[in-house]
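Q: Structure tokens for this one, please.
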Amino acid sequence: MKRLFLSALLLVSSFHIVIAQSIVHFRISKPLCLLTFLEAANKQWDASRTYSAYIFKNLPAEDKDNFKVLVNRFARLNMASYNIVSASPDSRQKPRSAYNIIKGKAVRAKYIEQFIQDISGVIPDEQAQELRDIMRRAEPYYNNLVWNDYKDATEQQLEGLERYSDKTDAIFNKLRRFYGSSWPANSPFEIGIYPIPGKHGHTTATPHGSSLVLAVLTGERDYAMRMGVAIHEMCHVLYDKQPYRTQWREDSAFAAKKSGYARYAYSYFDEALATACGNGWAYENLSGHADPTEWYDDYYINNYAKAIYPMVKAYINSGKKIDDAFIKNAIALFKKRFPDAVNDYNNLLNRVSLYTDAEDMDEFQWINKTLRKYYRITSCSSSFPIADNQTVGLIKKSGGTQLFIIHDNHSENFAILKDIFPELRKRSFDKESVISFTDKKKRPVIIVNVDGIDRIPSGLQKMQAQKNMSSSMVSKID
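A: Here is the predicted structure, written as tokens:
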């Protein structure tokens, strides 16, 4: 009987060993590598600047024309259809795009053919087959520029990150409690890494449900820092997966603070929390010391994260959840750190409603891409042309910063805007200018008024040079 009993115990122990697993799994996916390669070649606003520069610096001259045709085909693919989860507070709602699902599928796919099968139904078959052809034609370029020389270095990065997998479980559970998230404790994250050649530079990381995309520099050796970036992305998922009652409670806590800074502190809250938790607290736990460098490549997010870090650290270490007192202090810290935020274009355009008189989607995408060259925008709702009845309805009811880029149909557009905004009625805008004011709903309103689409960069450059909303309302463009 004793032998039978011991055998049963050993069987149970063995079973538990089999099902135990780390919260993070790292993998290298060729489809993901090809997608991120095409994104960087297309110089998308969310792609690595370092990667884009590397590609065009090393692309052989004889390949440039054919490669450009291929990248343009990728740019024309429309994979950004959106839907929004409506149960969250308005300030917490995020567009969910088909491309977000596609990137998540790419993390888990080993081969192009498997990837195309996995995204069946996500986008129309015609688009999927076009993407398949583009990726197959892009693969030789990718192999020559990146994969052949850096495959081994990428696998070394994978091994370096996997050393921290076991430590991540305890970190994740503490963060899950801090966020009050409903994410299951035993539901793992699949992290797809892709290489950017070099030791230093701009990298990106993005969450896609339970799949994360993480850029790694092939010459980097600070694996704790890169692991902190991965945990940063997990924190975004934990924030999104908070129960709706928690989301509404936090939303109400921000709304209750009658401060002009509260909405801006809220707009950066998700990113600042993830930075303080991942790049700050998690990195310190993994490496044994705080990271003395900049944590995020953005002035507001980096400094906001560092301002709230002592409070974040104290809450996590004591097992406390984010509460009303935490949010009240976060708003006060934001105001203290950024006293000029309410007039700063860099802040005002972080979340923005954009209206243009673009003629078609290609022209709108060019305007949107040009705008993102000058400003970091995390949330942008858009509509065009301005004279469209649907656009007029959105202008009247949408909140936050209202940005108008007018390069055509000036008389018609300004007649509409003067009807909506009484502040404009006694003004004449027959010359190129940047117009800014706060309307009766306390919304920042910015109008870039230029003569022709080619003059839009000049208007945005004027805004950059001016930095803040003008007290005189109108600033002429030189």
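A few notes: Confidence is low (pLDDT under 50) at residues 1-19. The first helix runs from residue 2 to 19.
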